[in-house]
Every structure is written in structure tokens, then in C-alpha cells.
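It is worth pausing here to work through a concrete case rather than discussing structure prediction in the abstract. The textbook approach is simple: state the sequence, then state the predicted structure, then interpret. We follow exactly that order.
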Amino acid sequence: MTMDAATLRRLSSLLDRAFELSPAERQGWLDGLAGDDAGLVPTLRDLLARPASKEATDYFLFRPSAFTIVDGESAASGPAADDVVGAYRLERLLGRGGMGEVWLAGREDGGLKRKVALKLPHVSWSPAFAERFARERDILATLEHPHIARLYDAGVDRRGRPFMALEYVEGKPLDVFCREGALSIDARLRLLLQVADAVAFAHSRLVLHRDLKPANLLVTADGNVRLLDFGIAKLMEGERTQETQLTRLAGQALTPDYASPEQIRGEQIGTASDVYSLGVVAFELLAGAKPYKLKRGSAAELEEAIAAADVPLASAVSPDPVARKRLRGDLDAIVQQALRKDPAARYASVGAFAQDIERHLRGEPVLARPDSAPYRLRKFVLRNRLAVGASAAVMIAVVCGAGVAVWQASVARAQSAEARAQASLARKEAQRAKAVQGFMTDLFRVNSSQQAEPLKAQQTTARELLDIGAARVTDALKDAPESEIQVIETLSLMYGSLGLRERAIALQRRGVEVARRVHGPDDPRRADAILSYVSAIQEYPERNEIPALLAEAKAALDAAGETTTFLRGALHIETARYSRQESFSAARDTADAAVAFLRHHDLSRGGLITVYNLAGLARMQSRAFAEAEAQFQSAVDAARLLGAAAPAWLAPTLTDLGEAQAAQLKLVAAEASLREGMAHTLKVNGESHPGSQMLRLKLAKFLLTTGRTDEGLALQADVRATIDRTPGRYDKATRANVAYFMAATATARGQPHDAVGALAADFALARDLLPRNTQRSVAALALAETWIAMGRLDEARPMLADAVAHRKSVLAGVDDPRAWLPNWRVEAQLARAEGDPEKALTILAAVPPDALQWPDVEPIAIEIERALALRLVGRKDEAAAAARRALASLQALPATHPMPSKEAAAWEALAEAELALGRRDEARAAYARALALRRVHDAEGSVMLAADERALAALGKPGSAATKRRTASR
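Step two, the predicted structure:
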């Protein structure tokens, strides 16, 4: 077909108008076209014959070679490597399809250096279209989610070529990743949950995807899904879609295999359409085949099947017999509900679809199946296999039986035994629930009856009510020991939430005693009670009991044959938590074992988050910060999948991630993580919760370290005021940690005298409360450094020796020299303070060079210490060079996140070296820079600030005779 540019534009405009009409309205509209437009009717009829098909739209919009433009406005030639499109230079072709090409590209204009996936559609758009396109780009670019590839930019370049710049994701399509990795059904379901979380997020921002398919779902090497092509999504108003030029044209380029019936029919679509497409992806991922078997394989036949044919059960089409068995029941029902023809009959949202998958993974009844007592009872039994394990013994008779009659009798007996076991369990559950409910009801009733005045009963505090319950629980439930254990655990948790740790632990211990009395040494319920108690005493003196308790719990689980259950996972978690306070290598190894166990068995997402955090903390203790960051990031990714429960998990996890990022000088990312963590804890726990105070203090410390002194001090002061208002809510350990953070601030701001008392108390707590706690060496080192700054060397020496000895003990099995950097630095600092700079240099010379190559503030501090020692032994040029290296590292930090205290120390070291070299003006300038930083950062009365003022005063004005004489005398 030959067509000039004006005619092509007119045809495009007419096609736009046609898309706005329903199929019934189009016929009359086409018949009414007149003049030049009448000549385009045959072409319009041809293009509209398949109004929602990919082929029809491809023909006109994405295959311009079907038309010849004859007036000189020819379409641009195809893109090639090294071409510049907008601000991007093309590097290599990533893929090609009906809509266009995708290229790896980088910024050409000196902007951000990140790589992008540049999409180049096969169509040239008019200026008006480009304007609308840019407007929608700004909306779509707001989809910030860990499982959505970001749309960074979009527009039309000077040659009229449209482009979309998306985040470049290195990964494999979802189906390929699952197939090549031979992933289990559960693993595939977990990937689908990541997809669902991202799609639900987009829906909450009023954006539909409309083209969900495996090719648009890339999985990275670490198992994280990233959704692509939200750039062609449709904006919504509630559940209805809002048409625009961009979404109308791009929206037609759907992939028929995954399109919903309403998309195929050209009807209005909503969130249910994405539910359907995700259902097709789920079907294909779980069954290993597509839902529709076609004889001819044509697009028309596929569209007809999607619109009218019944969807088979996934289990019926799967070629894998193991998968077929697993898919029968819940998963068949879940997928079927997502693939209903009627949008109203599907899941109400992608979130509801995901929740049913999560219910299945937890062994709970799913909403897609008819609700019935037998079904719910069967799910209960499956979740509690051990409790009904006795029925398995009856099944042995089936194998051993001889003859059909014996076999039939055995089956009948097995079924009868299983039914009796199920009924017995149901009765016990009901009795337990009734007993617990009765106890709690009686607790309130007794409180009222014991008060002479009803008003006084209403004014009973939560603490008083708990005390009444704790006193009565044993007598009230003496005939229902399992209920007694359950109530004891509930009361203990309530005591803990009020900050009454001693009462909480005493109750937990009672629960263990009851469990030991009622349950034998091979009963998992004994292990359950023990592990709850262990969890409560991890950070307290009673932790000395933990090794024996863990051994007892393990013996019970081993005897019961529980090797892959939730309780075995809890055993892994508590072992890792205990080891974290014992030695770095044990902390790392037990945490890694827990991660491997929970990832493999998928028992608890919360448990997996916990062990990821433990694995990260183990690496933080040995200063393997990059490895720690990777573990914390995995924890954050897992936490974001928890929906409404996510904030409670994200608060501490993001804070840990922020600290790992800060330790590597990723300061901008660190602040974002810390602030998000604080926002979550305030939302979930409120301002006065002990956990909230610790997270707020960590953010305050970061702000003070990176130059936001006023904000950091204000936040720290608010924490102190909050604690002063509710002192009873904070136990001894929490108060000591708060004091430690305050003391660290005082030391950094030049007030070691104000810090030493709190640091000494923190060390005493770590030594007495948890003698093998890894915090002990950290506290000892901080106290030793503070005493050195105060000139109290006789006190510093034994404290430093304690820090070194303890760290050696807990570092057994860890050969990473980075773990020793703080100790080496403080040892050199002490030697210099004692007047032995040669010894200081010998200590620093023993630091392996590799340990100083990592992004970390400690190598910078060591370089400053080296400069000071070099100057004292007369190696002045080397001293100046070392100080300049430290300054270069500090000045390379983001301008928004300086480290004024460290930078001031580097300037001071340079000033001393310059003065020793006789360069008085350079020395004075360096002291002036240090003093300016100190005045912004340090507290009033800072000893460092005062020292800088004295040094400047001694130097006098630049070039003065007095200055020259003082310099010459040196």
C-alpha cells in the first residue's frame, strides 16, 4: 500500500476514533464517513476486523513496512549499535519482537551512569502524541517497588523516534528460570507471590499491567522477580480503566496466550484482567503446559478458546506424575478460580489470589474450595501430622494383609482409626479452646466480684489483672495441662509487652515445668515449650541454661522423628541466636545452617527473615559488611512480601541493612534504609516502644556522624525525654544500650569526660550479664579509647587488654583481618600516647594491606593514626601524604553526607605534618579547616575544638614575624 504522510496521519486519527466506539457503533460510523475519509474505509474495515488481536495492531502500528511513505517524511532507518536515541547511546541489541527492539544503552549526556534497557517501538508518533506520552510517563514512573523494573524515562528523540528507558535487569524469564532450575512446586509458588505483590502494588497506584507473561517476568540469579513493561500499562479510575492515546495503542499489543476473555472481546477491563493473566502464568508454571490445546494453532482459534472454551484442570494436563498429584485439590481450585471467564467470578484482587496461595503453603483451607467441615478437618490433620501419626501404623496392615478380604478389612480399620483420630483431635481442640476461653472469662468475672465497687473493678490495671491470672492459672486449669501451657504463654507475652521481663520469664519457666510433667522426653510439645522459654532468655543471665535446653529440645524432636517441621526450624533459629553471643564463627555457621534449612523447607517466612538477619549480624561482627548487606537485603525482600504484616518485620531489618550500608560508606542508601526502618517502627510500635527508641538512636547517631548535627541532637534528646517519661517500660539492658549511644555521641563531639561513666557501665553490664557476649569487646575497646583521650593511660591499658583477649576468644575460626582493624588502631593510639610512636608504626605495619582496601571508615581512621605517628618519628613528608590520603577518601563522600569529625581529625593530622615541615601558612589553613568543622559538629567545651583554637592562636596571623619565629624554633 502506498500512502503519503498526511494520509497516514489521517488514518491513524480515524483508527483512534474507531477504538473509542463499541463494535456495534463502528459499523454505522464507517458507513457515515465521506470525502477523502471514505476512501480509507476499506483499510479501516480490514484493520478493525480483528479489533483486539495483536496481529491487527502489529500490522498497522508496529510494522510500518506495510506502508510506503512517499512525501519525503520517511521513517527513520533501523537502530544500530552506537546510535544515539535521545540522551542514550545504544550498545547492543537485547531482543526484538513485533512491537520493536530492546537495546542495552547508557547515558550519552553525562548524566547517571547506569545502564538501561531502551525500548524502541516500530512507530513514529506525532508531536501531540509525544506530549501525551510524556504526561503518562511521569505517572508510570512512580511505580517504585522491589519487584518492578523502573521506567526511568520516555519520549521522542529529534528524529521522531519514540523510546522508553527502563531499568536493565539481568535475569531469565520466569518459565525458563523454573525449568532450568527444576524448581519444586513450592518454589514456583513463592516466585508467583513475588509477582502478585508487585502487581497488587501497581493496582494500588491505579495502574494495570495488561500483558503479564513469563517473558515480562525476569528472575535474577538470587531468585528475585522483576516485572517489565509496565510502560504500556493502563491507568485506572477505581476498577475501571481510563483510556488515553498511549494506553489505547499500546494496550492493543497484548500477547493472546495470556490475554483475558474481556481483552480478547475488546471489552472494558479492570484488575480482574491481570488476575486472569497471572492465572495463566500460574497454570503454565505449575502444570508445565498452556491451558488450551489447539488443533490448528492459529491466533483465531486461540482467541475463540480463551473467550469460550472451558479451562482444564492443571493436574489433568501436567506431564509430570509427581506434579499432577501435588496439583490436585487446592492448587487446581486456586488456578481455576483465577481463570474464570466472568471477571466477577475470579478472585476480587491479585492480593486475594496471593493470600490463597499462602494459605495453601501454610496448609490452611483455601477460599477457592467449597467450605465444609470434612475439608477443614482434613487440612487440620495435615498440618498436625504428628498428632495423628498413630493412624499410620494401621496402614502397615494393608501391606502385610493376605487376600482381598484381609486387604478390605485393613482399609476399613485404617479409615475408621483415622476418623476416630480426627474426631478426637477436633474434640481436644474444642476442649482446649473452651478451657482457655473459660479461664479468661473467669479472670474478668473474678476481678469484678472481688471488688466492692464496680468502678474500682473497671479501674484495675492491666498489670493487676495479669497478676490475678498468673496466680490462678495453675489451680484453674489443673485438669487441662495443655490449656494451662497455652494460657501461661499468653500471660508471659503480655507481661513482656509491659516490660515486666522477670515475671514473663518466670511464667515461661512454669510452662516448661508443666510440659515436662505432662509430655514425655520424645514429645514435640515438650520441645515447643522449651524453645519458647529459650527465646525469652536469649539476652539475659538465664541464657546460661540455653545449651542444655537446646539439647533437650533436639533430643525430643529427634526421638519424635521431626526433622523438617516448624519446630525443627525454631530449633535452628534459637541455636543461631544463642551462638551470636558466643563466637563469630559459630554465629556465622549456625545462622547459615538455619537459612539453608528454612529456605529449603519453606516453613515460615518470618523465620526466614529472622535467620537472614542473624546471618547478616554474624558478618557485621566480623566486619564482613558486604556479605552482611546481602543477607539483610534478602531479609528485606522477604519481609516486603508479607503484606500487612511487613512493617513489623521491616523496621529492624531495614535498620540493620542501613548500618551495613553505612559501614561501607554507602551513606545515601544507608540513610534511606534507616529512615524507612524508623517510619515502620513508629507506625507499628509507636514512639515509646523500646525497639522504637533503639532504632531512633541509630538514626540519630548516623545523622550526627554525617554532619546533620542539629537534627541528630534533636532526635537524641527526644529519645531521652521519651524514656524519662516512661522509665518503667525499659529494662536494664535497653537503658544501658541507650546510655552507650549517648556516650558514643559525647566522645565523638569532644566530651570524653561526659562519656566515660556510661561507657564503663555498659562494659560492666556486658561483662556481668552476658560474659561471652560479643558486645563485651566492643564496649571495652570504646572505653579504652575514651580513657586514652582523657590521658588516663593506666586505666586504658587493662581495658584494651581485656578487649583484645575477649575478641581473640570470640574470633576463633574467623581469619578475616578486617575483624581486627579497630583493635590495631586503638593499640597504636595507646602506644603513641605512651610516647612510643615507633611501636605504633610497628603495630600499623602489621595490618595486612588487603584489610585496608575495603570501603570502610576504619581504614581512613588508621591512615590518620599513621600520619600522627609518622610525624612524631620525623618522617614528615610521609605523614603529610598519609593525612592527604585520608582527606581524599573523606572528601570523596557525597556532599550531602560528609563526616565532619573524621575530616577534622584528618585536617589536624595534616596541619601537624605541615607545621613540622615548616609550612606555617599551610598548617594554619589546615587548622582553620579543622576548627570550622569542629564548630559545626562538636559540643561546646569540646577538647578537640579547644586544641585547634590554641594551635591557631599560637601560629598567629599568616606571614607574621611571630609565626616565623615560632616555626623556626621548631
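Step three, interpretation. The chain has a mean pLDDT of 76. Residues 655 and 674 are 5 Å apart (CA to CA).
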